[in-house]
Structures are given as C-alpha cells and as structure tokens.
Amino acid sequence: MSAVTPLLITTGEPAGIGPELVLMLAAEGRLGADVVAVGDPTMLAERAARLGLEVEIVVAGRGEPAAHGAHLAVMPVVLRAPSTPGVCDPANAAYVIETLALGVRECLAGRAGGIVTAPISKAAIVEGGYPGFTGHTEWLRDACGVDEVVMLLATECALHAQAPDWRASRDLRVALASTHLPLREVADAITFEGLTRVAHILARDLTRQFGIACPRIAVCGLNPHAGEGGHLGREEIDTIIPAIEHLRGEGLDVRGPYPADTLFTPRHLAEVDAVLAMYHDQGLSVLKYAGFGQAANITLGLPLVRTSVDHGTALDLAGKGVASAESLAVAVSLARRLSARAKVPLS
User: Fold this and answer.
1) Binding-site entries for substrate
2) What is the pTM of this model?
3) Is 1-146+302-347 in CATH node 3.40.718.10?
4) Among candidates 244, 273, 250, which has minimal Cα distance to 158?
5) Which residues sit in the known binding site for a divalent metal cation?
6) Binding residues
7) Residue ranges of the chain that CATH labels 3.40.718.10
C-alpha cells in the first residue's frame, strides 16, 4: 500500500449494489489515491467486466497499477461462495463479517485512517450463522469494545458547514437514541441512563468531529405531541424530561422534548445543530425525504472514523449499473475530512 494512510471501503453484501458503487467511483476517478477497497478481487473484476467498467483491480501491496487508466487497490478477502447480483447467499455471511473485521483491525492498528462501509444484508448475515447480528452500528460497537455508540445521519451540506442554512437548504443532522429495534421494544429502550449517554457522545463528537464548539441539541418526544402532558404517554414526564434537565445541569445545551411532527420544521431547525430522535424511523424518514442519496451515516463514539451510505443493498438494482453512487461519494468525502480532523488535537 501507499505510504499515505489509506481510507478503507468495505464492499458490503456481494449480491448488492455495494461492489458496483465502489467500482463506479473508481472508474470515474472519484475515489482518490488514498482509498483501498476491502473485498474479493476476483468478484470485483468480474463485476467491473459485467458492467463494462474499465477499472484495473490491483491487490494492495502486491504491485503498482498501470500508468494510465482507472484502478482500484484491494485488500483481499475471498468469497465463501459464488455471488450473483441480486441473489443473497447466506454462505457469504462470514465473508461480509471478515471484511468488516479486517477494516477495524487496520484502523485500530493505525494502518488506516477510517472505514467507509457499503450496504449489507442483515437477513443474509443472520441466516448465515450470526443470529445476534442487528447491523453495522452495533457490530462495530462490540468489535471496538465500547459500551455505547450513536448513529448520526447528515445530509451533504450539513456535513460541510458548522451552521447550515436550514431554511434554504433543508439540511439535517439527526442522531438516534435507539437504532435497529422492533417498534414495540422502543419505549422500554428509552431510559434515563441511555439518553444521557447518547447525548454526551453526540455533543462530544459534534465538537470533536464537526468542530462545533457548543452544540445545540433538540430532543424529540417519543409520543405524539410529546405525550400531551401525560395523556398520550408518560415517557416524556418520567424519563425524557428528567434526562434533559440533568444534561442541562451538566452544561449541555439540550432542548425539548419537542413533538416530532413540528420539530422538523425550518423555524425549529434554524436554532439547533442536531436533532436527537427517539427511534429509527422517527428521525430518518424525515432526513431521507430531505436528502436521500446525498447523505451519509456516521457512527459516533468509536475509537475510529466510520461512515456509510444512507441506503440499503438495493438487490433489485444490483448488476444493472443504474444505482447512484452519490451517497457513497459523500461518505468517502466525509470520512476523509473526519480522519484529517482526528489527527488534530482539540485546543
């Protein structure tokens, strides 16, 4: 590999669009010389040929690319079974997990500056022998040995600017108090301790990774109308408000709880740097409406930089060359900036 500390991209579910999105960016010269893919070189070469993409696949550290033309350096992980676009094979679950594990090892050892993850199929991984798997975020938490992480999604302009013009651009930063849970389990997952931990991680990393000195965080209620004074649920009274008051007492600028159906409006968003939603679809439905395909997922609280796309495997599009690589491009750009910022101590 190059003397430059690389960024790594895991190619995700081999039957999904992840491999071709990586290849599309490489063919267009949009990855940069610092990016190294993690995946099966043979599969990537076959997928490039299938899509008519002229990309030279080079095993990282085993030779130099041709002087001309697009190329993609790859840290090799071998598929367990042949892969057909659009058809997940649980036999490749171990392959997907190994690409993630290799990326984490390289980052923790200081040999990589960050990891960008292409989409995976949770179902295929569970069916392939990993019954406790619920997603990238939780797997990375456990692999890195930390107690808590926070999923933050942000639309493209919000990734660049410390204070986006919410009214003009509809840009959002949305963090989640709970992630991949069945809806009936969400209320029990919202606890005083959990909310305070998530808010601390969010505030710290908005400063550490985004350079916002005093982050302003708006908190959604769990229930309609934020509980309507207890008439539509007591989670706000019993849990969310006490957590907010405790966090304010510690000096954090945490506001709410606000009814989710009115918080995501320009008047409220103009006054904050991020929104803390109580559950996955409460926050991400709005964000993806505002900027789907132009947003990235960031995992806060890890000892490494991790970003990802804002979409899934899109099996129905795989192998057709019609999927958009824009979210992956945003995720790569963000990982590069966060990696550079991580090398600069806070004053």
Assistant:
1) 136-137, 288, 297, 306
2) 0.86
3) yes
4) 273
5) 180, 225, 280
6) 136-137, 180, 225, 280, 288, 297, 306
7) 1-146+302-347, 148-301
